[in-house]
Every structure is written in structure tokens, then in C-alpha cells.
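Q: My labmate handed me this sequence with no annotations at all. I'd like to see what the chain might look like in three dimensions before we decide whether it's worth expressing. Could you predict it?
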Amino acid sequence: MAFPYLFEEGFELGTLGDFSSESDTSGRLDFAHYSKLAAIPGLPAPYRGAYCLRVDLAKATTDAYVQADSAWDTAMASRVHTRFMFYVSRDLTMANNDEFAIFKLQSAGPVDEVVVVINYTTTNGVRLGIGETGGTSFLPLTLGGWHCVEINALIDDNASNNGTIDANLNSGGFTQVGSLDQAAIAQARFGVMNQDAG
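A: Here is what I predict for the chain of 198 residues:
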């Protein structure tokens, strides 16, 4: 039986693969091979395969991401489903209220319509969040391990602000984000975006 994926990329060539483009003006993004990751104490091998997309958070704060220009295109009143695995190093350091995105669905502009963020507050610790332009629904996030995120976004029909975002972190459900005023999805970005200087 075939898998009904519209897009799948495991970076198995050590490149951006089927993604349309890469943006990385500070040289903080690479497609790390198992041999590079195995040499770093405490950093596990890729979740699957020999390569993974890696972004060095300490090197700079400029955006570093790969972009797909058409694979996630979604009309208004339609749904888009996304699933990906990610790892956050144990030595992540963030200041109170810092947040950065690791995934974005964007409409033309580009304008953020669905985001997945890593967020930190002194009260709540490190969390994964979902929302339209920033995190508004959160779950605790442990460091030093692989995580699976699944997103089911219903794009607003442009009439009644009825867009929704449902998501799971390691099979645990976020509280739904609803009443969203969104436009049709034109592209997707994976990496690190809008990183706070802290």
C-alpha cells in the first residue's frame, strides 16, 4: 500500500532535497551526517536515516531555514496535515519569555498563518507551542531527546474566522487554537526563525 504523502523529505542526500530553497546568511544550518552527530557528546543519531537538518542556535540569531514553495499549498476552508520529528540539545539556554519558530505555514507576503515554536518562561520552563503568529497553546518539552509533532490545520474560509489548529506532541494533544483569520497557504518553512537574542 502506498503512503498518501504529498511531500516527504529525509535529507538522505545530505542536501535540502525536495525543498525549494535554503536561507542561511550566517552559516548556521547544515545537513549533518550520522558521523558528525555521533562525535558530539550527548547528541543522538538522526531520528531516521543517515542525515538530519541541523541549526546551531549559538552561532547567530538570523533566520536559518529550508522552504517548500508549493508542497503545502492549501486553499481556504481546506485542511493541511504535517508531521515531523525534532531534537533539542540539553544545553539549550533561553531567557524569560524567549521564543523562536521551528515550523511555519505562510500565506503570500509571506504572512505567518500556522507556527510551531519553542518557548521559555521562568515559571513554565521550556515548552512547545502552536498558534497563528506565535505560541498560544503549549505543552512541556523535555531536552535531550527526539520528539514527534503532528499538526492538523483547518484554514479559515475567509468568511467567519473559523480557522483552527489541532496538534499533538508525542501523541499528547494541545488545546485547540481556534477562531483564526487566515489566508490560503503558499509555502512552508522548517528551521529556526525569529530567534530572540537571549
